[in-house]
Design goal:
This protein is α/β, with parallel strands linked by helices and 419 residues long. It is 46% helix and 13% strand. The strands form three sheets. The chain has a six-stranded mixed beta sheet, with helices on both faces. It has a five-stranded mixed beta sheet with strand order 9-13-12-10-11, sandwiched between helices. Strands 7-8 form a two-stranded antiparallel ribbon.
């Protein structure tokens, strides 16, 4: 798409458009510059990969000259939003939420490529609200009948067991009030979110119309679903995949993207990266020719890791991945990458003189001595790319920066460390 492409065209091309509250999307995106806001839940001190799509939608608005408000839900985070949740969440204290908000702001600055945005925390106004005036001025504009029909509420009421508490039921009023407040203070006239936010967003649009007579807008993106599990995107077997390098190492982060299934890789390239469409089209042609090479997954993993952790971390993660699962040699890793490899992958400590059969069992690459001997007889075991036989014993020379790669077959790998 040309550099002169309209924002509506870019959003459609990337697959970011699901519902919008105007006759045409162009009315919202391509006319006057808007002030757009996204609400972020501060229940952790890091964003996770499930937040990436919305952050990149905001980045597109910023690049097009619109103003952006990132609203951290310091007030609403103390309650929890029923949307997309199967159960009530734990309530957090003010200090935790404020610390989480500061961490999220730093990540947002990085993801927006240094472009200016406004960070707000709804705790500022929600914590001061008085119940009687709020019910009189805001609550009267909400029909319980309509609220009960909202998908987020209905799904919880229909489910056996807990149902939904009055606290979470009231979340819609507070999110609508946020939109009204941001409209009054900043002239905010557009709220974006995932499709499970549509009910909350339209409630806010309706409240602003009733209170001020003004027209404001909503835009949602499709909810990302992991096709393999059918669950909301963003979780791996070991839990959430975080953007914070301390919570999810850049190598593990890279591997998460490198291992996505073929049927999702093009969608993620469009929605989770800023890689131009022509480049994505080209890599998808290569992918169709030779799926085994995983060209698209490699581009995806590198692009998202660079976006979140920077160029150096992406290159290091790629190198480690090539050494572990590709054809790269251990000698290509410097001391820092070797240390990262040790920290990221399953490892086993080895002392010089240990027999290979014992190491195969200890590293869980073989289940018994008999199995280990069979693997060795079949030529299936290699150390740093060299095939081993049963008589092999370890010495310090086998280690580069204190690390060696023991492999059984192509995909079964253990990082050995010099104990």
């Amino acid at each position: 798409m040309s550099a002169m492409a309209k924002l509506s065209e870019i959003l459609k091309e990337r697959g970011y458009v699901y519902q919008f509250s105007a006759e045409k999307l162009e009315e919202i995106t391509d006319g006057k510059k808007r002030t757009v806001y996204l609400g972020i839940d501060p229940s952790a001190d890091s964003l996770h990969v499930g937040n990436l799509q919305a952050m990149l939608v905001l980045r597109r608005f910023l690049e097009d000259g619109h103003k952006v408000i990132l609203l951290v839900g310091g007030g609403t985070g103390m309650i929890g939003d029923p949307s997309g949740k199967s159960e009530e969440r734990n309530l957090l204290d003010e200090q935790t939420i404020d610390a989480n908000a500061r961490a999220i702001e730093a990540q947002a600055k990085h993801l927006f490529g240094g472009l200016d945005f406004t960070l707000e925390n709804n705790a500022k106004w929600l914590r001061k609200l008085e119940l009687i005036p709020f019910l009189r001025d805001i609550g009267k504009h909400f029909s319980v009948n309509t609220m009960l029909q909202r998908d987020s509420v209905k799904g919880r009421i229909d489910r056996e067991g807990e149902g939904i508490s009055y606290t979470e039921f009231s979340y819609m009023l507070l999110q609508s009030y946020d939109f009204l407040h941001l409209h009054d203070v900043y002239g905010c006239d557009l709220q974006i979110g995932a499709s499970d936010q549509w009910g909350n967003i339209t409630s806010g649009i309706d409240l602003i119309r009733r209170k001020t007579g003004k027209t404001v807008y909503g835009l949602t993106s499709p909810l990302l679903i992991n096709k393999a599990t059918g669950k909301k995107f963003g979780k791996s077997e070991s839990g959430a995949v975080w953007l914070d390098a301390e919570k999810t190492s850049p190598f593990s982060f890279y591997q998460f993207w490198f291992n996505v299934e073929d049927e999702s890789v093009e969608e993620y390239l469009l929605k989770m990266t800023t890689v131009p469409k022509v480049e994505i089209d080209a890599v998808m042609i290569m992918q169709k020719r030779d799926k085994k090479e995983r060209h698209a997954q490699r581009l995806l993993a590198h692009a998202v890791t660079e976006l979140v952790h920077g160029k150096d971390a992406a290159e290091e993660a790629e190198k480690i991945s090539q050494v572990l699962f590709g054809n790269a040699d251990m000698s290509e890793l410097d001391a820092h990458a070797s240390h990262a490899l040790k920290a990221s992958a399953p490892s086993f400590g080895v002392t010089p003189g240990l027999a290979i059969v014992d190491v195969l069992i200890g590293s869980q690459l073989a289940g018994s001595k008999r199995e280990a001997r069979q693997f060795l007889a079949d030529g299936a075991v290699s150390l740093n790319g060299n095939v081993l036989n049963e008589g092999f014993e370890f010495s310090e020379e086998n280690f580069v920066h204190g690390v060696a790669i023991l492999r059984r077959g192509k995909r079964n790998v253990c990082v050995l460390t010099l104990a």
